[in-house]
Specification:
Layout (H helix, E strand, L loop, with lengths): L2 E3 L1 H8 L4 E3 L3 E3 L5 E7 L2 E8 L5 E8 L5 H22 L4 E6 L8 E6 L2 E6 L8 H12 L3 E6 L3 H4 L5 E6 L5 E6 L2 E6 L13 H13 L6 E5 L5 H6 L5 E6 L2 H13 L5 E5 L2 H10 L4 E6 L11 H18 E11 L6 H14 L4 E7 L18 E7 L2
Parallel strand pairs: 1-4, 9-10, 14-15, 14-17, 15-16, 17-18
Antiparallel strand pairs: 1-3, 2-6, 4-5, 5-6, 7-8, 8-9, 10-11, 12-13, 18-20, 19-20
Helix pairs in contact: 8-9, 9-10
This protein binds S-adenosylmethionine.
S-adenosylmethionine binds next to helix 6, strand 15 and helix 8.
Length: about 400
C-alpha cells in the first residue's frame, strides 16, 4: 500500500513541506499507519498517514528508506541528542524534548518538567507505537515518569480518542520546575499546552536579565495574559509591584501559588478580559514602567489574519499609551498565520497611532528547544519584541 499524490502534492513534498492535504492525494490507504508517499516517478518519502484527517500525509523521511520505522526512531534519537546536555545538566529544567514536525516527528510534542515527561502524540500512526516510544524514552532519559496527555479536543479532528494514561512510572499531580532563579509548579495532567508555555522560557529569562542589566530599581509592572505568572516572577525583584491579568481563574490560582513559592510579595492578581481592562486603565490615566503582552493565538485560521492583526494592534496601542517615557513593552504573538514582518509593521503602526517614539531593543523568537524548518512556516510561530518608549 502507498499514498499517491497529485502533481501539486508532489511539488509540496519536493519543496520539503511534510504536510499534504487530503485534496492533494489521489490514492490513500483506508487505515492510518506508516506508508510510502509516491508521485509518478516513484517514492518521495515516508509518512504518517491518516485518511480521517484533513492533513492526511505527514512526511517524516524525505527519499526512500529500507526500514522506515528505524528512520523514525533515528529522528527521535537525534531530537533527544540535541537536548541531552540541557536535560542531564539540570534536574529541575522545563525543556521541550521533541517539537513535532520541526524534529521530523509528526505531531509529537514531548515536554520534560523536572524529568517528568508529558507526551502529546497527535498523529494517529503513533497510537500503536506508544509502548515502544515510552520504552525508548526511558532507555535514553531515565525519566521520573512519562504521561500520555491525549486530552486535547484537536484529537477529535484526527478521529482519535481522548484519554490520559501513564506510559512509565507514576506521574505526580505536579512537578516543581526551575527557570533561572524562579521556581514554578506545573500541573502534570492539567493546565494549558502540556502544562506550561516553554516556548517563552528564554524570553522570560531575557526580560529578567535585561531589567537587571539596566539597573531597574522600582516602578510598576503589568503582566497581561499572565497565565501562571512566569513573566511577572522574572520582573518582581526589579520592580515595586507587578499586576497580573488573565481571564482564567485557574491560571491566576496557579500564579498565586507560584508567587508564594518564590516569596514574591509584590504581585497582585486581576481576573479580567484584557481588552476591557487595558481600556479602563487607559481611561484612568494609569502609568507603568514595564508591560508584558503575551496573548493567545488570535489567528487560529488564515482567514482570521486581518481580525487578529487588528486585535494585536489594539492591545499594543493601549499598552504603549500606558507606559512612561523610558518604559518597556515586552510583546509577543504566537499566531503562525501572522508573519514576522506583519507583526513588526503592526507594532510600528501602533507606535505611530499612539504618538510614541519607540526603540526596538530586542527582536526574538521561540526558545532554542523549539527548532524551526525553513520550508515549514508553521514551525516558526513565536514573535517577541522588547520595545523601549523614548517619549
Ligand atoms: C500565551 S498564554 C500566556 C503565557 C504566559 N505569559 C507564560 O509565559 O507562561 C495566554 C494567556 O491568556 C489568557 N487569555 C486568553 N484570552 C484572554 C483575554 N481576553 N483576557 C485575558 N486573558 C486572556 C489565557 O488564559 C492564557 O493564560
Amino acid at each position: 500500500m502507498k499514498v499517491v499524490l497529485t502533481p501539486r502534492g508532489v511539488r509540496r513534498v519536493l519543496a520539503r513541506h511534510p504536510w499534504v492535504w487530503q485534496s492533494d492525494v489521489l490514492e490513500l490507504p483506508e487505515e492510518p499507519g506508516i506508508y510510502p508517499v509516491a508521485g509518478r516517478r516513484g517514492v518521495l518519502g515516508w509518512a504518517m498517514v491518516n485518511p480521517r484527517s484533513l492533513i492526511s500525509v505527514r512526511v517524516f523521511h524525505f527519499g526512500d528508506a529500507d526500514d522506515p520505522l528505524a528512520a523514525l526512531w533515528r529522528n527521535l534519537d537525534s531530537a533527544l541528542d540535541f537536548r541531552r546536555v540541557a536535560y542531564r545538566s539540570n534536574e529541575q529544567a522545563g525543556l521541550r524534548l521533541t517539537f513535532a514536525e520541526a524534529d521530523l516527528l509528526p505531531g509529537l510534542v514531548i515536554d520534560s518538567y523536572a524529568r517528568h515527561l508529558v507526551v502529546q502524540a497527535h498523529a494517529a500512526a503513533w497510537e500503536p507505537l506508544l509502548g515502544e516510544l515510552g520504552e525508548r524514552l526511558q532507555a535514553a532519559l531515565a525519566a521520573n515518569s512519562i504521561l500520555a496527555r491525549h486530552d486535547s479536543p484537536l484529537r477529535e479532528k484526527e478521529g482519535l480518542e481522548r484519554y490520559v494514561r501513564p506510559l512509565a512510572g507514576a506521574t505526580p499531580a505536579a512537578a516543581l520546575v526551575g527557570e533561572g532563579r524562579v521556581r514554578y509548579r506545573v500541573e502534570l495532567g492539567a493546565g494549558q499546552k502540556t502544562g506550561a508555555f516553554l516556548d517563552q522560557r528564554d524570553n522570560r529569562l531575557f526580560l529578567g536579565e535585561f531589567l537587571a542589566a539596566r539597573g531597574q530599581r522600582g516602578g510598576r509592572g503589568l503582566d497581561v495574559f499572565s497565565y501562571q505568572g512566569l513573566f511577572a516572577l522574572q520582573m518582581s525583584p526589579h520592580l515595586d509591584s507587578v499586576e497580573l491579568v488573565d481571564s482564567s481563574a485557574a491560571a491566576l490560582a496557579a500564579a498565586r501559588e507560584n508567587a508564594a513559592l518564590n516569596r514574591a510579595e509584590n504581585l497582585t492578581f486581576t481576573e479580567a478580559n484584557a481588552f476591557d481592562l487595558l481600556r479602563q486603565k487607559e481611561r484612568a490615566g494609569e502609568q507603568y514602567d514595564v508591560v508584558v503582552l503575551d496573548p493567545p493565538a488570535f489567528a487560529a485560521r488564515k482567514s482570521d489574519r486581518q481580525r487578529a492583526l487588528a486585535a494585536y494592534k489594539e492591545v499594543n496601542l493601549r499598552a504603549l499609551k500606558l507606559l512612561r517615557p523610558g518604559g518597556l513593552l515586552a510583546t509577543a504573538s504566537c499566531s503562525h498565520h501572522v508573519h514576522e514582518a506583519e507583526f513588526y509593521e503592526m507594532l510600528a503602526g501602533a507606535a505611530a497611532d499612539a504618538h510614541r517614539l519607540v526603540r526596538l531593543r530586542a527582536r526574538r523568537g521561540q526558545a532554542w528547544d523549539h527548532p524551526m524548518l525553513l520550508t515549514v512556516p508553521e514551525t516558526h510561530y513565536l514573535k517577541f519584541a522588547l520595545l523601549e518608549v523614548l517619549s
